[in-house]
Amino acid sequence: xxxxxxxxxxxxxxxxxxxxxxxxxxxxxxxxxxxxxxxxxxxxxxxxxxxxxxxxxxxxxxxxxxxxxxxxxxxxxxxxxxxxxxxxxxxxxxxxxxxxxxxxxxxxxxxxxxxxxxxxxxxxxxxxxxxxxxxx
Amino acid sequence: xxxxxxxxxxxxxxxxxxxxxxxxxxxxxxxxxxxxxxxxxxxxxxxxxxxxxxxxxxxxxxxxxxxxxxxxxxxxxxxxxxxxxxxxxxxxxxxxxxxxxxxxxxxxxxxxxxxxxxxxxxxxxxxxxxxxxxxxxxxxxxxxxxxxxxxxxxxxxxxxxxxxxxxxxxxxxxxxxxxxxxxxxxxxxxxxxxxxxxxxxxxxxxxxxxxxxxxxxxxxxxxxxxxxxxxxxxxxxxxxxxxxxxxxxxxxxxxxxxxxxxxxxxxxxxxxxxxxxxxxxxxxxxxxxxxxxxxxxxxxxxxxxxxxxxxxxxxxxxxxxxxxxxxxxxxxxxxxxxxxxxxxxxxxxxxxxxxxxxxxxxxxxxxxxxxxxxxxxxxxxxxxxxxxxxxxxxxxxxxxxxx
Lengths: 136, 403
What we know:
The complex is a heterodimer of chains A (136) and B (403).
Chain A: E1 9-10, H1 17-21, E2 28-33, E3 39-40, E4 55-60, E5 63-72, E6 84-91, E7 98-103, E8 116-124, E9 127-134
Chain B: E1 14-21, H1 32-47, E2 56-59, H2 75-82, E3 88-91, H3 100-110, E4 116-124, H4 125-129, E5 147-148, H5 163-178, H6 182-196, H7 210-215, E6 218-220, E7 223-224, E8 233-242, E9 254-260, H8 280-289, E10 300-303, H9 308-317, H10 326-330, H11 349-353, H12 359-369, E11 383-388, E12 395-400
Parallel strand pairs in B: 2-3, 2-4, 10-11
Antiparallel strand pairs in B: 1-8, 1-9, 4-8, 6-7, 9-12, 11-12
């Protein structure tokens, strides 16, 4: 993938800003329940586990495990050239929190389910897109 | 986990009494409402009714301007075009998949809100995309200042705008856990094409070989072009009637034995708990919890094939094979062939007959039960399942027609 490929960007709102702009500080952030410590994604105004409304953004390690992936070959967007890897990763802190993302800095045919990856950010305008690369 | 919530299975008060379908094809260049009224009037006539008898309408997804071609007509356009006098109607997207609208109709007649409900689904995605390719009719493809919200914010920034990408992730996980192969997955597409050759209305009818399947371009691994359904223009309609209001109609009614509408996991493509199943796991389990019939009783199966892997997942969820065993089950194609254990997608499905979005499969289930499958008729089916949806969308119906 080129250095800065074309990306459709997310619409930043007060609810998702911690996620899409955490990369400015190099942090992958999710809402977390202060009562039961559950991470919440996508953002919601309450904890789905204990229903506490005391939730706030918190940084995680950025380490994750690749749950599954696909190599996309279809040229959906000018400026985003296939092939590229679309993956679903599970964050280390709580594997049922998943992200769809891209695996970068990795040969396409070296990607495999179960591999450990870590976050890296790609800055576009006012958002930082969390991508993942093989963990060192 | 899944238990029948009613001792009386109320959907059994509903029956299917007529079906209709417009022309089906690529780029018909006809107005979607024109296709819709063709299908609706055909279904009304097929049932032996007149439009004055129709007092309910149900449709999926309702009237939507975008994405182009996805919604051909809403309730109000059809009501007005046919000047229907309605006691009940519904049209919407947040349903147990496309056939959820038919389930709604069953409930409406079971509750006495309506007597004869016209259900329809119209697509005109082939004309809408013209020569610009499939991406032109997908949601959220805008460039420039467009920004993604809702669920799409979690997919579009990563160049994953299509359900092909999301379903491919499920398929890859299935390949990983169970050793499923492309040669096995191919059987869904090859079976569809074989059956489409016997369906004069199917879009792609020329023979396809395994070698051609394996050689065609990849879309999103492990899904190739032939694992993706064919955008089409067409409208399909069915009449759902109160089972006690079917005497004197043209056809012997098809009984609704049970429906499945459950979703117990998270309603999400990427947060779903088991990435080798989908919501169809829960819908299928619920359907079987509402009937004494068993998978072995099913004579013909019309299972959603927007992408071939979804059909594999339905085969497992419905219990035609064990979890993870759909690969070996379909391997040589014989079990899912017209003369096999579970004749599957007998009209060619969406993969070869065209993406009529769930309703085409229901239409075919009814045709088969009425013995009107022509060259592709299965021998004497009495029990059929029609299943729609993939990912976090799933709804299914078990239908019977005793001889």
